[in-house]
Amino acid sequence: SLSWSHTCTGSDRVLYVAITHENGSTDVDAVTATYNGVSMAIFFTDTTTNANKHTRVFRLVAPATGANTIALDWGGLNRAFSAVAASFTGVDQTTPDDAQQAETNDLSGSTNQDRASAVGDMVVDVFVAASSVAGVAVNDGNTEINQIFASQTARGVAMSYEAGATTVTIGWAWTSGFTNFIHWTWNVNAATGGGTAVPVFTYNLRQQGIA
Questions:
Q1: Region for 206 from its dihedrals, namely left if φ exceeds 0, alpha if ψ lies in -120 to 50, beta otherwise
Q2: Distance between CA atoms of 91 and 191, rounded to whole angstroms?
Q3: Is 147 in contact with 156 (CB distance < 8 Å)?
């Protein structure tokens, strides 16, 4: 298991938690998450695209404000893992986001996606590398939320966001390493009726360890 404190503030909130674990097990389906003791919904899970990059993203609409605990339970798995969390304000509470899309490949250098969005929305992504890479950095005007690439596990996860427009290009680049990766993106919908409400990144924390 793994737990840490994350602070949610503002109105019309949504919280995302992305996790990945090392090679050798496809049981990411066993992972559960809570925030302030409330179960987080599974936004999406990927274990089939490639057995070397297991990904699960959780979502909680209207999480409690203040500093509360994110708790992940691996259901008995004994794997090294990484996790990153981000919360946003000004998000539509009925339809907080659009369906995710992914790019997956074996290459060196970069990954980039064009994502349909709108002014006032926010595009969010998760980049998971299945082998060691170095010098990982945002690549297309996006702002890094956080990243963790654990050398002892060859397992890493990074997360970023970019303000919405008709089309948003969002991506990552790395300076060394030949990696099998998956790059997930989705659009976060701005709340309506709130005038200037725009999703804003508020706080993040990343953790890594052995389950």
A1: beta
A2: 5
A3: yes
Which positions ≥6 away from 193 have C-beta within 8 Å?
Answer: none
Using CA of residue 49, residue 53, residue 54, residue 60, what is the dihedral sign?
negative
DSSP annotation of 49 reads: S
Does the pTM surpass 0.85? The reply is yes
Q: Using an 8 Å Cβ cutoff, are 31 and 19 in contact?
A: yes
For the segment 43-63, the average pLDDT, to the nearest whole number, is: 79
- Tens-place pLDDT, residues 70-114: 998 877 666 677 888 999 998 999 999 988 888 777 666 888 899
Beta-bridged to residue 2, according to DSSP, are: 72
- CA dihedral sign of residues 159, 163, 167, 173: negative
CB atoms within 10 A of CB 35: 21
Give CA–CA dist 82/90, Å, rounded: 28
Residue 138's alpha-carbon distances to 86, 127, 168, in angstroms, are: 16, 10, 14
Closest CA to 128 of 181, 83, 86: 181
